[in-house]
Amino acid sequence: MHFKKVLLGPAVALAASAGVAQAGTVMPDGWYVSLAAGANWIQDGDMTWQWPSTRAFETYSWDTGYTIAAAVGYDFGKHWRAELEVAYRHNDVKNYCVNRPVSSAGCGLNSGPADVWELSQMVNVYYDMALGGRWTASLGAGIGGNLITFNPGFNSLSYDDYVFAGQLIGEVGYRLSNRWQLFADYHFILNDKADLSGPAVSSYPLHLDKVEHSLTIGLRFDLQSDNEPAPQPERPRPAEPMPPKQFIVFFGFNKSNLSSEARRVVSEAAMAAKDYGAADIIVIGHTDTVGSQRYNMRLSIRRAGAVKAELVHNGIKPDMIETSGRGETELMVQTGDGVKEPQNRRATIDLE
Fold this sequence. Notes:
The chain is built from 3 helices and 17 strands. It has helices spanning 3-23, 260-276, 293-313; strands spanning 30-42, 45-50, 55-62, 65-77, 80-99, 106-109, 115-132, 135-151, 159-175, 180-191, 194-196, 206-208, 211-222, 246-250, 281-285, 321-325, 346-351. The relative contact order is 0.12. The protein is α+β, with helices and mostly antiparallel strands. The strands form 2 sheets. It has an 8-stranded antiparallel β-barrel with strand order 1-4-5-7-8-9-10-13. Strands 14-17-15-16 form a 4-stranded mixed sheet. Helices cover 17% and strands 47% of the residues. It folds into 2 domains: 3-222, Porin, CATH 2.40.160.20; 246-351, CATH 3.30.1330.60. A hairpin with a 4-residue loop joins strand 2 (45-50) and strand 3.
């Protein structure tokens, strides 16, 4: 059986990753215990029984059985946890077919209390994923051993063997509270070939191949409350941000009327003055160097007046606003005389 390749790869990879997660974990979630029960199915399989003169091939079908599993584990946080699981599984024989070269027994229903029970011990490693809200999903793998005991239903005899076993696990969980979780999981279980021996067949063992599927529902209980992040020291509140000290409104060439963009800037200045309680607002108009200095001085004063009117329109009291003009005497961009420079055609709004 190739189940060692199927199980050992994922199990070793999960275990190695869990070790890395543990090393990087600052506040592990800690120990937990769980208990689960559900149904167990055994795939139809062959059993060979070697006698000195007869080699019997028996094909068994199994009734749906049950399983009970208990585990103790440790949650490392950051998605990873590991646990030791002990599980008991029991299935009755439903029917069987026997093919013997010396004598033919044919097929028939189980005529006696033939059954198989197992006691497995597995080390499981899980990767947990949050699904949102209280829901989680997990993928896991486990390896360990399994005691298999077969009762053929006659002479009150039983035959057993302890074999290497492994499993792949899928789980969905729902957190009921800080320490309780309800979960449902599926186990795909593979067992090494069992050489079942007993009082009557110590020299001629039965060989049994067995693949199983289990569905269980259970409860998990954290032995300690999940750690909460350490409270952060209260930091001093940052000082209230200072209001912008200056806003700049630009005008078109030889214009003193406000564009839509200019009105937006004036509106922001008015809002800042209200929010931060500016006591005084100073508006100064400017021009470029096109035209005479006398004309540009009058134009800069008209620009300052247009800005003031818009501030008043936005709820600022007139007596809070001081206006003046500078003409072409305070250029933002230094140019020669008679140069059309857009950045020089402006009015500044200063909050004090």
